[in-house]
Specification:
The protein is an alpha/beta fold. The protein is built from 5 helices and 7 strands, in the order βαβαββααβββα. Helix 1 crosses helix 2.
């Protein structure tokens, strides 16, 4: 499947809503890479994903200065949020424990994935966000049948409120 998009997101609410629908569709073991310039809306999308996965009350996806990876409880699953903005080299990845994150029960979302693309397994979903004239434009690049299926479902629900 080729890159799908652009999906127009005219407000932060649109970004969250797309994330929510993505979060509902994400299967256990899924890995999602988010790319885009500073302020594009990557964390906003991740918050929506968390909401769609049923993040527990009181938790909000954030990007703390000194932690590359945060884990959020979502029912019987976990959302692992890896933000590579401050990564200095591949050795920094080892200390995060992200490799365990893709095991049973987890979904891994990686912000600034272009800084260390090796975190992505062969099958993954890459999401590119860029600035548009009105809000943002988002592209979906699925690698692997399960991710293509997910993108088909996501696009099929695109116009439903
Ligand atoms: N579709 C949109 N249209 C307009 N503003 C948006 C949209 N999506 C998100 N925003 C806003 O853009 C700002 C930056 O969002 P966010 O922090 O999610 O970006 P980011 O890509 O994670 O940034 P960083 O590069 O610092 O990690 C926020 O104020 C957010 O509300
Ligand atoms: Mg961010």
């Amino acid at each position: 499947m080729r890159a799908q998009g652009p999906i127009h997101l005219s407000s932060a609410r649109d970004t969250v809503d797309l994330g929510v629908r993505m979060g509902r569709l994400l299967f256990t073991g899924a890995v999602v890479g988010l790319s885009g310039p500073m302020g594009a809306g990557k964390t906003t999308l991740a918050r929506g994903i968390a909401e769609g996965m049923g993040i527990e009350e009181g938790y909000v996806v954030s990007s703390p200065t000194y932690t590359l990876m945060q884990v959020y409880p979502c029912g019987d699953r976990q959302l692992y949020h890896l933000d590579l903005y401050r990564i200095e080299g591949p050795e920094d990845l080892d200390s995060t424990g992200y490799r365990d994150a893709v095991g049973p029960g987890g979904v891994l979302v990686v912000e600034w994935v272009e800084r260390q693309p090796s975190v992505l397994p062969a099958e993954n979903l890459q999401v590119l966000i860029r600035y548009g004239n009105d809000g943002r434009e988002l592209f979906l690049l699925p690698a692997g049948e399960r991710y293509e299926e997910l993108v088909r479902h996501l696009l099929a629900g695109q116009n439903t409120p």
